[in-house]
Amino acid sequence: MADFRCVLLLAYRSRMLATVALGMAAMLLIAWLGYQFSGRQPQTVALDLGISFIRVFVPVLGVLQIQDFVAREVERRLIFTSLTYPRSRSIFLLARYAAVLFLTAVTMIIFTAVLAILVKSLGGTYQQGTPVNLGGQLATSTLFSIGDAMVVIAFATFLAVVATVPNLVFLVSIGFMVVARSLSGVIQLLYADNTLVTAAEHYRAGLEWLRYLVPDLGMLDLRRAALYDQAGLLPDPLWPLIGMPLAYAVLLLALGCWKFERRQFS
Asked: Engineering a disulfide at 45: which of 34, 91, 143, 159 sits with its beta carbon 3.0 to 4.6 angstroms away?
């Protein structure tokens, strides 16, 4: 618990609140502009843009916190002081991960709630053909977006243990997030049209192997049900979408703890 509270205090002192406030202002501006310039379904467009911003901004903020609270602590040699306390290295690492994930989840929930209020207020008297769902469907989408962030932050935590340059944690984690979210979509696109690239079958076969190593985070984007108020757009059953991010996060954290326990600091 001491490490957990320490990370919360460090996040506060690192002006995280100011960063979150700026991010929220940017999200509201983007959603409002989407509503104003949309010719059709303006609430749907505003909600879609807002969710897209949240799914990028909030995990990136979590990755930056892991970079600061783990990788840079090693770089600045502050790790020698942290490891003098009577607890294992694994507890130190998992506490930092849990604190960052907690902050990420809270931030994502607050952003989504504020976005829902904005979209609701923009509705006015205009009735869309397919109204948005700002209740259970949006909450479900947010829950799985937190699962997405859970995997990305776990990957960043693993990198923070093995990387020798702190900036690699941010760069490689963002690359991992982009690949994990887009891989299944690219494969489906290649199945639909073989003329997109030369030797599409060989290219697709290579991506299929990568599919076994990289989690399919694109499956966790369930915003369509909230955008069009159709529960039928949610996959059935949902349990594979719950187990997949949990399994990958546990595996990455286990590898990170194993490596951290054996790492030699100099």
From this structure: 34
Structure tokens at 43: 């609430």
Torsion of CA 81, 84, 90, 92, to 10 degrees: -50
pLDDT by residue (tens digit) across 202-222? 666 666 677 778 888 888 888
The mean per-residue pLDDT over the stretch 119-134 comes to 78
pLDDT for 191 beyond 70: no
Q: Is the peptide bond before 245 cis (omega within 30 degrees of 0)?
A: no
pLDDT in tens, 74-92: 766 666 666 666 667 788 8
Question: Side-chain half-sphere of 6: how many Cα atoms within 13 Å?
Answer: 15
Q: Which of 224, 217, 176, 180 is nearest to 51 (CA)?
A: 224
103, pLDDT greater than 80? yes
8 Å CB contact between 67 and 170: yes
Query: Structure pTM?
Result: 0.89
CA 172 to chain centre: 14
Structure-block tokens of residue 10? 């460090």
> Per-residue pLDDT for 1 more than 80?
no
